[in-house]
Design goal:
Structural class: alpha/beta
Number of helices: 12
Largest sheet: 7 strands, mixed
Strand order of the largest sheet: 3-2-1-4-5-6-18
Shape: globular
CATH topology of the largest domain: Rossmann fold
CATH superfamily of the largest domain: NAD(P)-binding Rossmann-like Domain
Number of strands: 18
Bound molecules: nicotinamide-adenine-dinucleotide
Strand content: 15-25%
Distance between the termini: 27 Å
Number of domains: 2
Length: 363
């Protein structure tokens, strides 16, 4: 069996790094890697050594039994694959449900890495968590590069500097990493989340938790947030506004899986913010937590810089690729037995990630 790893088209990350390639031998599989796939993450073709066979894209697409890519392959390539081939990628069917029918139409067996259940057992293959964690860290650095001031408190002969105030909205994986990073830089940090479970985690990082009463119960949502009522969101926006006016940096990460991101910072809140302050909106690709966010753009409104970027992990391609490669290897370990594909539908990880199978198409 051959596993093929492809060069990402608009992303410097790669789903196979040399150190992880060496570990695939234990699975009894051969590896094909598109030439140059690791280059932008600073993994040269030579670094992969004997563990992989380098090939051009056409050969990888033709010969691999399992094709791995971070972003789904373009339709023009998917439709050329054979039903015996397996595709592994982030298809995001919770955001783009039409992708399932499309893949069924191509008669492909597809595993979506972003559908792996958020359980303790699946943690080592959870690409959403590993990438969100990088994004949360990077969000603070991005904010710092626009912020016209320090993060830490400084007492110098030339005067004293107060610490920056950072507000984090959404304390999931990305938010918690943003909190930890801002704290390490010496900022004063407060954070809010609708999931009460987040409160303890925020407090344990030494940040203040901003609680808005009356959030809907989310215990049945598998670790995800549930959609809140308009009344709740209204109260939350008022609470955010009062704090936003004093914040130097706001990092927003609030998402509700399968729906548009909640607007927590309307335009009038931005107006009340101090000139020079910075918003980093990690929910930009699902509509944004700030009403003024423009996805993949940095804009300035009333002196406030608004960075709309949900793909900050791609700004740290080397470490992102290390984690991503490990996640993929750990997932494939559950899918391959003695060098063969083994789709064990009793396994909840496999069941969760499998979004289409040729058998279904035949029915
Ligand atoms: P996410 O990216 O879907 O959402 C980010 C955060 O936004 C969540 O914490 C969510 O509660 C919050 N949010 C939604 N609406 C909000 C609102 N109106 N105001 C404020 N915050 C709002 O979530 P995620 O970071 O991918 O993770 C969600 C949860 O799953 C976390 O609790 C995480 O710890 C858990 N998780 C568990 C595992 C595991 O056990 N293996 C793995 C990954 C994540």
């Amino acid at each position: 069996m051959k596993i093929g790893f492809l060069n990402e088209q608009d992303d410097p990350r790669v789903s196979l790094i040399p150190a992880v390639a060496a570990k695939y031998a234990a699975l009894g599989v051969a590896l094909l890697l598109e030439k140059g796939a690791g280059a932008e993450a600073f993994f040269s073709d030579e670094a992969y050594g004997e563990d992989v066979q380098l090939a051009d894209r056409g050969q990888v697409l033709r010969e691999a039994d399992i094709l791995v890519s971070i972003h789904p392959l373009p339709d023009s390539e998917l439709q050329e694959l054979s039903p015996n081939q397996v595709v592994v990628s982030e298809f995001a069917p919770f955001r783009k449900p039409e992708v399932v029918d499309k893949l069924k139409g191509y008669k492909l067996r597809a595993f979506s890495l972003d559908m792996i259940p958020r359980t303790t057992l699946a943690q080592s293959m959870d690409v959403l968590s590993s990438m969100a964690s990088i994004a949360g860290y990077r969000a603070v650095l991005e904010a710092g590069s626009y912020l016209p001031r320090y993060f830490p408190m400084l007492i110098t002969a030339a005067g004293s500097i107060r610490p920056a105030k950072v507000l984090v909205l959404g304390a999931g994986v990305a938010g918690l990493q943003a909190i930890a990073t801002a704290k390490r830089l010496g900022a004063q940090v407060e954070a809010s989340d609708t999931r009460l479970a987040a409160k303890e985690e925020v407090l344990s990082l030494g940040a203040k938790f901003v609680e808005v009463e009356g959030a809907r119960d989310d215990t049945e949502a598998g670790g995800y947030a549930v959609k809140q009522s308009e009344e709740f969101l209204e109260r939350q926006r008022a609470e955010v506004q009062a704090r936003a006016a004093k914040a130097d940096v706001i990092i927003t990460t609030a998402q509700v899986r399968g729906t548009k991101a909640p607007v927590l910072i309307p335009a009038d809140t931005v107006e009340k913010m101090q000139p020079g302050s910075v918003i980093v909106d990690l929910a930009a690709s699902t509509g944004g937590n700030c009403a003024l966010t423009r996805d993949q753009e940095v804009i300035e409104v009333h002196g406030v810089t608004i960075i709309g970027n949900s793909h900050l992990a791609a700004k740290m391609p080397q470490d992102a690729s290390i984690l991503y490669s490990n996640n993929v290897l750990n997932f494939l370990k559950t899918l391959i037995r003695e060098g063969e594909l083994h789709v064990d539908m009793e396994n909840e990880i496999i069941r969760g990630a499998l979004i289409t199978a040729p058998e279904e198409v035949a029915q």
